[in-house]
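Exercise 7. Given the components listed, write out the predicted structure of the assembled complex. Treat all entries as one system.
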Amino acid sequence: MGVTIRQIAEAAGVSRGTVDRALNNRGRIRPEVAERIRAIADEMGYKPNQLGRALSMSRNNIKIGVILQGAETPFMKEVLKGIQEACAEVDNLGGTVLVHKIEHQNAEDVILAMEKMRMEEVRGIAMVPLDEERVKREIDRFVEEFRIPVVTFTSDVEDTKRLCFVGQNGVQCGRAAAGLMGELTGGKGKVAVISGYSTNTSLSSRVVGFCEEIARKYPGIEIIGPEYCFEENGRAREITEGIFKEVPDLDGIYLTSHGEEGVCEAIAGAGKAGQVKMVANDFMGRNYELMREGFIHFLIGQDARIQGYEPVMILFRLLFNGEAPERAKIFTEIYIRNEYTIPEGRH
Amino acid sequence: MGVTIRQIAEAAGVSRGTVDRALNNRGRIRPEVAERIRAIADEMGYKPNQLGRALSMSRNNIKIGVILQGAETPFMKEVLKGIQEACAEVDNLGGTVLVHKIEHQNAEDVILAMEKMRMEEVRGIAMVPLDEERVKREIDRFVEEFRIPVVTFTSDVEDTKRLCFVGQNGVQCGRAAAGLMGELTGGKGKVAVISGYSTNTSLSSRVVGFCEEIARKYPGIEIIGPEYCFEENGRAREITEGIFKEVPDLDGIYLTSHGEEGVCEAIAGAGKAGQVKMVANDFMGRNYELMREGFIHFLIGQDARIQGYEPVMILFRLLFNGEAPERAKIFTEIYIRNEYTIPEGRH
DNA sequence: CTGAAAGCGCTTACAG
DNA sequence: CTGAAAGCGCTTACAG
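Answer.
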């Protein structure tokens, strides 16, 4: 197959160690010799064999830490699957991945977890951050003082020295929903926006994207809300019922977050299934069923798996090959699904 | 890190070769000994290190052949990128991939390419087949007589001994389009279907899926056509103009294949941009632009990359690890995109 | 600055 | 049926 380091060594009349030093800029080599070896390697079309490399490097194994918040949510459980896939792959390549799960969101716990990771001597950290000053300061300290690169995922903290972010572009997600709702309603009528928490930045980005784009492209649509249901079905139901009372001729509902079942119960109760157009988010819980039953017209989702997988692999590629990520923000695909594009073998 | 074969050998008081024979059922070992070793390995939680395995196996390298048809089309060029990714990965794991490109579709050339692959002693073939008797017979002969597994991709030939198929479910794709068109038109009006070739099975599946689902779920919609434009813009334009003449109050167009620009010219000519709802296929050519310009409302697409990547990897996993694919038909995701979910950095 | 050697975890002829 | 040894392609102390 490929050219090996041994062949180059023979062609150059030096030892394999010398070739290694030349090709990987390890110093301790006469510059002219290094130059000559590199030229020979180029000419012979040398491509390092990752296998040999990895096997040899597995002696000083690369350890990567992962810190998960909100680990109890269905979304994070999906993300965790992606992390585990990455673990398997990193393991195969001779590295190690340490995962620390935190239930709910908690700055204190995050900082403690980071400290723990440092004690374990991880060489990089992938984490779900929190938009709090002390967390951000800690991230910067890890990067600058300890030289431990940090990749954020799912939520971002832009004003830090984190290497990059992997996750959804919330504003764009809201715009996509606006495009769908616009077409579903023929660009006119009344559409309610129901969100989860006003304090959650990724949810409010969706609301902003939605409202802005509706205003821009479908000025014939009047927006009701946003109202907040705290991702609870009971609350979502009450809100929806309330809206129906105020606005009996409602044409559509955009739901940024959980509470689907409550909303659908209210729709069913009002006898408006299929008639009130609904766009919701995420491929979790009973959402596919609700789509099949005709309550939800479109689901917008993100690839949770890749939000776990990619951050770990980005760090591994950095630490193993010195490959830096291409961009500071790696936005995941925004999937649009209708009842015909539900993946096989899913709930 | 993990438990190694050497540790098991020490624990069992045998040589590493013996452990290998026990764990990989290579025979030439006393059954009791094999059993004992397997028990010990289990207990110690042994997981074979793929790296060591691959590096060692790279001596008798695994060669995989790929046969591409219609290599000149934009779609196949995307597929080819996936193939090249797989090549790189297989290469890294000590294997080799041979790619044979055929312009257009041609049974004779396919059979010749298969023969060539056999001469090259490939251990598996991934190919775009052709629904012709002699091609199918040849596939069966390769599988049964030569014991060379065959994976089909992009198009399938069900009644053969091929290991599995990777590609789109055309009928489902048509149904997804029907769901979109139904919502775009409010479930009523007149919708034209324009396809590429009546002889192309994957295109006719789309037509069938579309028409059946419209009839079932949106009985208020009347279907015009299908007409065939041979994927030519000129022809597509004429057809569309013809339809406008016959059906001035047309509400939508479903285009199963290329000819988008021709159709859009006709729409523009009639001053009906945005008004006639359009659903088209594939993320190629000017399709994203046409969507941004408001001609196309939804694009349905397939992940071309994975249709090249996966078949090669399926064969590699089979030949390298003895892992068989999970299903005989591996359907790729059906993506729905609107103007807000166009991936970054794409034309 | 350079080389010889050992080692990463596995597989595979070769002896016996 | 079993073991000792060589080898896959690379990296890395250790000498010099």
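Discussion: Residues 14-18, 21, 27-30, 33, 52, 54-59, 94 of chain B lie near DNA strand D (CB under 10 Å from a C1'). Chain B has a mean pLDDT of 93.
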